[in-house]
Q: What sequence folds into this?
């Protein structure tokens, strides 16, 4: 029986298989979610191997991040729910833990500027390479409420963003569907890796 | 029923699976085509995941790039048709979006010279490593007609080429068949990557 | 019939498939073990392809490292048994032979400090990135008794560690189960690779 | 019906699948052979995709390199036959075309010294990391007879080697069986890659 939860869950399971296969969710890191039509959110249970997820590894939370099935939500749940709150059109949030994103804060201070890449057209609303976008880099923080607030304030001040990096931790991006969000993950990681290669040289 | 369109389409689907698997067509980038005996061209529909193509993701256009099945052709269609026009022996054109090709223009100005590599023998008509070939690098351009013209004028002026790079965008290469074109993709990308690494663009 | 030995053996076989697939056990290098409830240890036979293990490639030894099935134990067996002796809670020991761990001693003297990485939370007992852990690097030594003693003395002096590197040889880590140990392998290798890249050992 | 030729051929097919999967035989490059009990040699037909070999892609030659089945032997056949002539114990010769081996001659002049690596124990007759071996690097040459002679003279002068690199072209190694030779390929490529990383840095 394929209800909406199962459909979203299977999309997250497949996304996890791809993301882990790329080396982007090592050692159970990373977390992925998708919003259902009624506002409930399917999200990966904390601590599970993201490349070997099963239905049991996907739980339900409400729009405030509270568990709807008795299980303990991930600590990072608020980073997901605050994005769903801000962006009614967002249907999925993906948080991979990639080498590039983990390294970025060693080469860039508090933002990465991406410009002049054809692949920027993979991001929503962009139809030319002749554009300049900013990916903010926030310091990591175990206090997730504080971190979610920081992200929210940044967007209030600077306008909409396509994703953000958490220093030494990975990045968050989102889309209308799991498929779109995964496309954004691919595009951003591809560009993060190139920028590291362009700016990380010069070391003995 | 395996008519010619289906055969070419399946070759493109397999090529896409390989190319995406290598990380050479991220986030729905890239496009691939093959020419049929009667001059019609099978080409990937824009915006599809190049590693998960199905028959529905391959459309038909005529030699001028006009859609033959009601669907909207890719913006880059003219880059394919102008190659088929110039080279009667070409049966397939592949445009991957690789990290190396995207980076090349940061290290080389308007051309990359490849010489002294055994792998140059994978390109048509070359039977020794003691040869020097030039891969032009064109600035990216959203105006595809203008870009196609630029490529055409370059070839008029400089003679036949084996492929070309679009700065920050990837590269185009071709062959008598999808199989040959894919061999050229493999060879050029292998060499692009080495040249990037030799000139400072390795993974720090 | 799934007795305990078979269960542990299959976990080691799967771990080997993953580890070799990542390029972390080239040319039959590496070795993996798991402890049974009665203290006997299932361990990979020396010289077998670690990505293609079968039940025949897993042997039994006792807590002192003596063969229980007539076959010759790996030279490195004592590195496993001394960890099981020291840590009653450890159920598996994994020794991969990764590029990063092999290179580490060229960039770091006798220890690698890891701090400020979210992925440190994949290691037991760590729940914040704001922590500093030390991974000792021991010179390689064909005299395994001497090496096992050196590791043991280090732990006596410095306290518990999460794993250690053998210069030019790879690393050892462990966990309550094969699954946990594999998570630690993933986390440590991810971080070793980043640290190498930050200190000059990237792929030029 | 599994005669000796078929057995060796299937081993070569599997080796090719692995080698190409690693990116070590791009664009139909590379070639692999195995000797039969009666001295005939099974060798890959020139120009075939090394990751998709079938029985049809393996031909038979005699000890002098002459075709035994009407098909044209690879140009590089003499590099195989001269090794079989010199080393009666060698049962397989593998020539991968790896990025590392292709780059090596840009960083090292006419030899690469490997010492102090545990993985050297994967090579025949080595049981310690405390050893120093030399891998010669020969300039590439389309005149294979001349090249085979050069390799032979080097061995006459310097003694037995474990493999050799052809500048800008890849490397050759061998073993008692296809399995052993493949283990040597894995070990040498792993170490070539590390040496490139250690000596290729310092680029802006």
A:
């Amino acid at each position: 029986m394929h209800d909406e939860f199962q459909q979203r869950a299977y999309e997250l399971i497949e996304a996890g298989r791809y993301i882990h296969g790329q080396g982007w969710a090592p050692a159970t890191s990373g977390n992925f979610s998708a919003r259902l039509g009624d506002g409930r959110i399917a999200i990966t249970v904390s601590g599970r191997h993201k490349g070997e997820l099963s239905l049991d590894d996907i739980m339900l939370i409400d729009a405030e991040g509270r568990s709807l099935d008795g299980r303990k939500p991930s600590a990072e749940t608020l980073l997901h729910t605050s994005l769903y709150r801000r962006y009614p059109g967002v249907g999925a949030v993906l948080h991979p833990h990639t080498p590039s994103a983990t390294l970025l804060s060693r080469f860039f201070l508090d933002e990465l500027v991406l410009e002049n890449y054809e692949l920027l057209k993979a991001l929503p609303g962009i139809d030319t390479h002749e554009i300049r976008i900013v990916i903010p880099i926030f310091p990591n923080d175990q206090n997730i409420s504080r971190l979610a607030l920081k992200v929210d304030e940044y967007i209030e001040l600077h306008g909409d963003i396509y994703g953000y990096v958490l220093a030494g931790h990975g990045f968050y991006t989102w889309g209308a569907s799991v498929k779109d969000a995964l496309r954004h993950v691919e595009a951003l990681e591809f560009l993060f890796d190139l920028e590291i290669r362009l700016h990380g040289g010069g070391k003995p």
Summary: Chain B is about 35% helix and 20% strand. Strands of chain B lie at 31-35, 41-44, 58-61, 92-95, 111-115, 132-138, 163-166, 170-175.
